[in-house]
Amino acid sequence: MLLAIDCGNTNTVFSIWDGSRFVATWRTSTEHQRTADQYYVWLSTLMNLQRIEAEITDVIISSTVPRVVFNLRVLADRYFGTRPLVVGKPDCALPVAVRVDAGTQVGPDRLVNTVAGYNLYGGDLIIVDFGTATTFDVVDSDGAYVGGVIAPGVNLSLQALHEAAAALPHVDISRPQAVVGTNTVACMQSGIFWGYVGLVREICARIRAERERPMKIISTGGLAPLFQQSEELFDEFKDDLTMHGLTVIHRHNTT
């Protein structure tokens, strides 16, 4: 079976793929000092608790945190006896080459989302990923990544408000009952929620205008469901888009 690992700035997701479906998925905080042994104890304990008797034969890793990759490589080698594929490295081929400025390093998560989006929905896509950053990835008609947009993430913006303004509390993001808030929390929630609705709508509209063609908008990431229910911003929502992309890239490199 395949162990797919998606390491982001905030969380790391481990999923076991049996060739047709994900049999289990777990999430942990991303900590660069965590050792391979600690990863294995955590992972094997969860597998035992869920009575998953899976023999891991392959590992693929996507990581936006370079310092974490070494210990994940050791995990694959020491405990599963396999050399992992690492997205973004020369020995991990993509189905379609990226088309960006020479020398540009594209985040592995964005490459994986591009592959997944094209596999599921075809070309001419805008993929909006609500992670630590809010990213917009543009997928060409043939599945190539051709660029995008990076904006501050929703929680990052809330944290900045709280830390930079002494009088503003930390609040959870939710859809406010009204645009005009009548207390501090409601004002902050309205500014963040409707601000990001406007950001997504405007950026996607400008991408479509610049590309001069219809484009399907796909959402993913932790806060995507909140915005998915509002204002009909997106054509599709895919919770495990990145993990699906990892399985496609693994298949491309092993068949």
UniProtKB/TrEMBL annotation:
Residues annotated to bind K(+): D129
Catalytic activity reported: (R)-pantothenate + ATP = (R)-4'-phosphopantothenate + ADP + H(+)
EC number annotated for this UniProt entry: 2.7.1.33
Keywords associated with the record: ATP-binding, Coenzyme A biosynthesis, Cytoplasm, Kinase, Metal-binding, Nucleotide-binding, Potassium, Transferase
Pfam family of the protein (one): Pan_kinase
Pathway(s) the chain acts in: Cofactor biosynthesis; coenzyme A biosynthesis; CoA from (R)-pantothenate: step 1/5
Active-site residues annotated for this sequence: D109
Coarse class of the protein's main subcellular location: cytoplasm
Enzyme class per UniProt: transferase
Localization of this protein: Cytoplasm
Coiled coil: none
Keyword Cell membrane: no
Binding site for ATP: D6, C7, G8, N9, T10, N11, T12, V13, T132
Family membership noted in the UniProt record: Belongs to the type III pantothenate kinase family.
Function: Catalyzes the phosphorylation of pantothenate (Pan), the first step in CoA biosynthesis.
Protein name: Type III pantothenate kinase
